[in-house]
Amino acid sequence: xxxxxxxxxxxxxxxxxxxxxxxxxxxxxxxxxxxxxxxxxxxxxxxxxxxxxxxxxxxxxxxxxxxxxxxxxxxxxxxxxxxxxxxxxxxxxxxxxxxxxxxxxxxxxxxxxxxxxxxxxxxxxxxxxxxxxxxxxxxxxxxxxxxxxxxxxxxxxxxxxxxxxxxxxxxxxxxxxxxxxxxxxxxxxxxxxxxxxxxxxxxxxxxxxxxxxxxxx
Length: 217
Prior knowledge:
Layout: H1 11-19, H2 22-55, H3 76-84, H4 91-100, H5 110-120, H6 127-140, H7 146-154, H8 162-169, H9 175-184, H10 191-215
Helix pairs in contact: 3-4, 4-6, 5-6, 6-8, 7-8
């Protein structure tokens, strides 16, 4: 049996003490009720959005499912872009909206997503939303936006969040993408991770090359 140190109490004893304190119990109840009220309000907002998606012919249990491309999903993209601009939603909700449209089909809204990204970049209160928009930008750009996309990937003012932009850049076969990836190896924010990724990619390519050679023997 482990001897309890003098002055220490177990978690069960602490809970018992707290529950015997009327002031603590009242404060805890008030906090729980406030949280439940907020949760209901946030869920009501989502229900309104999901009803709008349903009215547009998109049958989903949650707006987050748009990323899985259900029937008529393209109709949901402008709806989510419009709602993610609304400050009544939490930062996390807006983050999920942005992630839900991280696809090439959202390309017509790329300039608007870029505008949103620049307006919230670096703001702590929008850190989660900023990540979602960065991911959507990286997934939805096309040739027409490629030079602009490269410039924001290289812009150190956007800090670590650019790692989510680079996810889209890594998939590109454009020689300009390779040049930018090389530059990012010396980036003060992303350099360490980019260098590690480049080395892993080189090893993978070398291994694949060996397998290809063996297949001809």
